[in-house]
Amino acid sequence: MNIDLTHTTSSQVNAALVKARRAAGFPAVGMVLTLVIVTDEGNHYDALKAASDASREHPSRILVVIRRPGRSPRDRAQARLDAEVRLGGETGTGETVLLRLHGELAGHASSVVLPLLLPDAPVVVWWPEDSPAVPSKDLLGALAQRRITDAARTEDPAGTLARRAETYAPGDTDLAWTRITPWRSVLAAAMDQRAVGQRQTTVTGAVVEGEEHNPSTELLALWLADRLGVPVTRALSEGPGITAVRLATPEGEICLDRPDGRLALLAVPGQPDRHVALHRRTTAELIAEELRRLDPDEAYHHALCHGLANLGAEKAPAGPSDPPAAGRESRRKAPARKAAAR
């Protein structure tokens, strides 16, 4: 069911939501959170599709804020709200409201969104493309318990991560971090397997290979440096995304190699090599993972704020004849300690 509203108000949008629920036969509100997507006209379709797919796991009210300030002085001087209420069908198990803010109203999105938030439910704000310099200080971001950005969609991912570290507030997160969850899980499991029935394995160094302008590669290198307390080298590859992680140990090299973006090969000294499913996930899968936890992500905070001064250093490609250790190292002052990657 779709209800189009022009020259409307937030109260009229709320009334349309109640009308749509009653017409659909389920007047009770069964959503667990409010997801606010701040985007533009050109990118809202893909973002809304990803959010709708994620809402099948997390029923939510999705508010899509599309700012249209106008180009001419006359357009910028007006203030108008157009809305579209969607219920059922491709919108998933929740409710979807598209809010198009025209003219001066584009600068006051929080006043439009606030009356539409679900009562006593968490709020998550997601910027699929352009995000504010300080998400926690943004008027919409201040309403949320969780603020999701994506450094991979910016022109300078490394610089964006550095700014995120300077302005971090509890509740901030980034899809570049979410993308490395499977990598962190496999590497932690590999270290745990090495520790079973024998003395804990000591990691003396690490290499992370990936595309040059890939913030997930940077975050994985920083996470390893933070958790292991060893030099971590960032080496370039042709991609896609992260292609390999190599951990140097006295017993030999632990290697997780994914050259095709789908299937990885895990090699651990003293154990047979085995394949691991490590495909590149869709945006819907990433958003669904982020909505599973709404508390501050301390692991992201520690990784983000570790060694970012070295992010702009020169990085060398890992070629067939060159050792992958050529590149930039992210070092921690503490001495190498036993692996405790979680």
From TrEMBL:
Pfam families noted in UniProt: OpcA_G6PD_assem (PF10128), OpcA_G6PD_C (PF20171)
InterPro entries per the UniProt record, alphabetical: G6PDH_assembly_OpcA (IPR004555), OpcA_G6PD_C (IPR046802), OpcA_G6PD_N (IPR046801)
Glucose-6-phosphate dehydrogenase assembly protein OpcA N-terminal domain boundaries: 51-166
Domain Glucose-6-phosphate dehydrogenase assembly protein OpcA C-terminal: 170-304
Biased composition (Basic residues): 330-342
Segments of skewed composition (Low complexity): 316-327
Region spans: Disordered: 313-342
PANTHER family: OXPP CYCLE PROTEIN OPCA-RELATED
Descriptive protein name: Glucose-6-phosphate dehydrogenase assembly protein OpcA
